[in-house]
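Translate sequence into structure tokens.
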Amino acid sequence: MDKFKRNERIAIMTQVLSEAPNRIFTFSHFCDLFGAAKSTISEDVAILSETLRTFKIGTLETVTGAAGGMRYRPGVMEGKGRELMESICEMLRSADRILPGGFLYFSDILSDPSLVSGMGHIFAAQHYESGIDFVLTMETKGIPVALMTAKALNVPLIIARRSSKVYEGSAVNINYVSGKGDIETMSLSRRAVKEGSTALIVDDFMRGGGTARGMLSLLQEFNCKCAGMCFVMALDDPDRRKFDNEKSLILMEKIKDGECARVRVSDWVK
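Result follows.
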């Protein structure tokens, strides 16, 4: 096997680690890949770790034990997370985004890979130490950002449906009160969730919290713990009942006729 230069090894390691965030790679994996000694790989890891720390774009952690190795946890450079969300708020303030009935159009933002990837990294960074087993979302608009969060955490994405699908096998169905006050149904396949797991709820928008409460009830049916709830946007209403461990990237005031959306970035976003 040809010998690789240090800059070549570090470039490949960066690519491999960033493509599989929060996944543990053994030192032997890279020793075999490059045909290098463990001491050489350890030096490469130290250089890469210091570079990531210097530029504050993530951390490279060494995991001890029999199944130990290293894992890359994406981060957002200090100030960049807030900068990203401020730019999204600016887009949302456009008058042509207001729809009849006082709704705000932001589906294009939720389908932009670069934007939802950044949101996913922000959410994941808050829960790396929470022992998340899976990310739960409700179909359909919250799926992109939930998927990016799941990727950053290296866990599966599980989607609650509005009705059970025959191709998903037997399912648990619950009724819940939506934010509009309607009674709706939420379904989750029994095969999708392992009892006693820990979930992170991620969704696009929270108005009154009805859908969020529905997902919490669904988790209780599986005896699962909810480590946190993350939303791209939430209604900034003092009368709205808030949840424990709730985090929203953007807060929006109720839209009045003839007005542009009044949105702001949440204080916790850095």
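Note: The mean pLDDT is 92.
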